[in-house]
Amino acid sequence: MSVTSDEEESAVIAATPLLLLTGFLGSGKTTLLNRLLRSPGHPRIGVVVNEFGQVGIDGKLLPGSGIMELANGCVCCVRGTELWESALDLTDRAGAEVLIVETSGLVEPQALLTQYELLPPAMAARIDLRGLLCVVDAQFVGEAVTRRAEARQQIELADRVLLSKLDLASAEELLAAHRLLDSLGATSDRVGLSLRSSDAEIAEVLRWAFGPRGQHSRRKRSGEEKRHGASQLQAVSVRLPGPLLGPPLQKLLEELPGEVLRAKGFVRLYEGPSHAERLMVVQLAGHRVELTEAPEEVRAAVQEHGDGALVFIGEHLDESWLRLRLSACAAQLP
Questions:
Q1: Among residues 33, 146, 225, 248, which one has the fewest Cβ atoms lying within 10 Å of its Cβ?
Q2: Dihedral sign, Cα of residue 99, residue 56, residue 105, residue 323
Q3: CA 150, CA 107: separation in Å to the nearest integer?
Q4: Residue 21 belongs to what H/E stretch?
Q5: In the Cβ-directed half-sphere of 100, how many Cα atoms lie within 13 Å?
Q6: Residues 109, 135: contact at Cβ < 8 Å?
Q7: 271-280 per-position pLDDT tens digit
Q8: Mean pLDDT (the chain, rounded)
Q9: Long-range pairs for 2-7 at CB < 8 Å and ≥24 separation?
């Protein structure tokens, strides 16, 4: 049986990681995308946008190509043909190493996922879909899902959720956003960013967003992984300069057993404007999670430094992911 030229090409060309970036109108997609493009040290990023002018980018349109050269080794393509063809065009003609497709704020992402599933085999073999990242405005997500079905679907189908504009949201608004996401069955793989987030934090978000699809959605190891025997243990320490919200922290800790065998430390817990912050001792062992009031001697010692801290012990720990997940539990106080 002969092999077509398309099949030969797909056999030798590695699949390019592609991320679908979605979120309702005004959620902060374009701001996030611009921060990602300006962050240092990333691979050459190719961007496909739904509407020209949506992204604040500089450069010159390459004649006849529909491809725009961006700063920091990035390229951009206005969607003129089929979305997936445009993305691969950035790989073939502009050398993009990873791809981001920024969708319209009113898109129903199921249609895009269905398109992907129906791609010709030769094209599908060249795209490594890393999933759907949904950007959520922590202040106004409730209003968005009430008004538009598209906003609800974007959240329900997302593989990862990024809570944006945390510096503009109160702790109560952030807690309400988590509760709403939980009620919609949204993924618990959530991180948070503010307008003050550093370039280093943005770079961590980029690595997190392009992780394999579903990498962190279920933290328990499979039976096959367990049969490989014990791996070398490691310890990861995360400093917590501000207070955390109790319910999302509790949920995160309950999901960790698997790679994480043990966690301990202390956190400052925010429970509302009418309550004083409480310093809590965190203990995770096996599948048991305990948050208990810190004794007086511990409170005195921690108050000297003003920070909380957690230590995680386990196998194959991802320090960046742990820090990012904790960022979504942070209580943003004025």
A1: 146
A2: positive
A3: 6
A4: strand 16-22
A5: 26
A6: no
A7: 877 777 888 8
A8: 79
A9: 4/122, 6/122, 7/121, 7/122
pLDDT tens sequence across 10-55: 445 689 999 999 998 889 888 898 888 888 878 889 888 865 444 4
Please state, in angstroms and rounded to a whole number, the distance separating the CA atoms of residues 98 and 19: 8
Give the max Cα distance, the chain. 77
The tokens of 161 are what? 């959720």
CB 224 within 8 A of CB 293: no
Contact 208, 321 (CB under 8 A): yes
Residue at 227: amino acid letter? R
Which region holds residue 152: left if phi is over 0, alpha if psi is between -120 and 50, else beta? alpha
What pLDDT, on a 0 to 100 scale, did the predictor assign at position 125?
93
Calpha distance 53→38 (Å, rounded): 17
Crossing angle for the helix pair 83-94 and 109-117, nearest 10 degrees? 70
Q: What is the DSSP string of 235-274?
A: EEEEEE-S-EEHHHHHHHHHH-BTTEEEEEEEEEEE--TT
CB 20 within 8 A of CB 133: yes
- Whether 4 shows a pLDDT value over 70: the answer reads no
| 3-state helix, strand and coil shares in percent for the chain, rounded to the nearest 5 | 35, 25, 35
Please state, in angstroms and rounded to a whole number, the distance separating the CA atoms of residues 269 and 253: 14
Nearest in space to 46 (alpha carbons), one of 82, 19, 74 = 74
Burial of 294 (0-12, 13-18, 19+ CB in 10 A): buried
Is pLDDT at 109 greater than 70 in this prediction? yes
CA–CA separation, 151 and 3 (whole Å): 44
The pTM assigned to this predicted structure is: 0.72
Q: What angle do CA 229, 231, 237 make, to 5 degrees?
A: 145
- Expressed in angstroms, the distance from the first to the final Cα of the chain is 68
CA distance 126 to 17: 9
